[in-house]
Amino acid sequence: MRTTASKHPVLFSVVAIAVFLIALWLPAILLAYFGPDFFLENGDYVYQGTVECVTSLIGIGFVALMGYGWIWNEQGKSMLNGFASSAYFIVVSLLSLVSYIAEIALMDEVEYNPAWQMIVFVLTVLLIGLAEETFFRGVVANLFIDKYGDDPAGVWCATICSGMVFGLMHLSNLMSSDTVGVLVQVVSACAMGMALTAIYYRCRNIWVLILVHAFVDFCGAFYSGFVSGGSLSSTISSYEPYQVISALPYIIVTIVLLRPSKMREIIALHRLSGVEDTSVGVVMPPEKLKSSGKSKRTCVIAIILSVVILLGLYGAAVYASDYSNSISYEYSGEWDGEAYFGIDAMTFTTLHTADYTFTISNLPSTNSASMTVVVTDSSGETVYSETFEGRTSATRAVLLTEGETYTVSINYDYSEVGELAEGERDYMTSITVEYLE
Description:
The chain is of the alpha+beta class.
C-alpha cells in the first residue's frame, strides 16, 4: 500500500483527512446519543478523552494499512535532539502555562477539579497528540516525502504540502464555528503544520511530535483541565483577521529547521525510513546538494498554490468580517439546584429584512437538562422558539424584520436532573446571530 499511496500523495492525503474526521465524529455522535451518562456528567475531558482514544486506535490501524507501521520504532535522532528542534513550541507553551498559573494565583478563591479528572485531562491531551500526529505526520508527511524527498527542493515541497493538508483539514470547523474565525485558524494551522512537519523530518521520531503536541495542548488548556468551572469550549469564533500574524513565527521556524546546512542530514534520515536492517547503513547524499529541474518546478508550483490559497483564505476572512453583522453571547455558569431558570442573553436591532443565522451551542454536564431559546420582538411577540435537549450544537435561520428590536432569551429546564456533585454542575451556552450581506 505504501508504494501505491506514495505515488499519489494528494489523493491519499484526502483519504487520510476523511478517515480522521470519520474516526473523530462517529464515536463522538454515538457517545453523545447512546453512551452512559457517566461520560457526559463528569466534565468535558471524560467525553473528549474517550473519543480521542477511539480516534487514536483507528489511526494506528490506518497507519498499518498504509504500510507505515515502522514509524513507531523509527528513531532517526534522539528524543533530546527532537525536543531541541521543537524549542519554539515548548517555550511559547511554557509562557502560556506560566500566565495561567499566575492568573490562578491571583484569584481569591480557587476550586480545583478532583484529582481523577486532572489525570483524565492529562491522558486526553496525550491522546489528542497521538491521534493527530499519527494521521498528519505519521501518514501524510511520509506520503509527500516518499514522493518528493530526494533533494532539497523536494523536501520543501513535501513540507509545504503536508502543512497545507493539516491546515485545510480545519475547514471542517465551519460546521460549528464562525466563518471568520475558522478561516483565520486555517491560515495559522497551515503554517503550524509546516513547522511540525519540519521538526519530524529533522528528527524522524514520531514520539517527539506526539509529546510536543500534547504539551502544547496541555499548556493551552491548563485552566479548563485543573480549575473547576473551566470549559473546553472553542474560542475559534473570536478570531479576527489580524491574528493571521501568528502564522509568521511558524514560517520562520520552518525556514530555520530546513536551512541548507541541515538538508543533507534530512535526506539521509529519509532514506533510512522504513528500512528494517539499519546496520547496512545508508548512502549519504553528496556534500553539495543539487535539486533536479523537476523538483524545482514542483516546489515552485507548491509555493505558488499555497500562497494563492492562503491569501484567498485571508481575503475571504477580511471580506466576511467587513460584510457581516454579528453579535455573540457566551456564558459559563454553575447550576445552583433550581429546576427552572432563565436569562435575557442579548438585545439587538436589525439592519435588514432577511434570514439571520443563529448558531446555538449548549454544553450542560448532563443530557437530562434542556434549554429553550426564545426570540421576541419589541411588542413581546415570539418570532422563534425551540427547545434543545442535552448537549446541543445547531444552526437555525430566522426571518427578522429591518429596524426591529429583538430580544433573545434562554430558559433552562433542570427539573429532570438529579443530584450532581461539585464540579459536575458546570454548563456553557453560546449564541451567535449573524447576517451576511
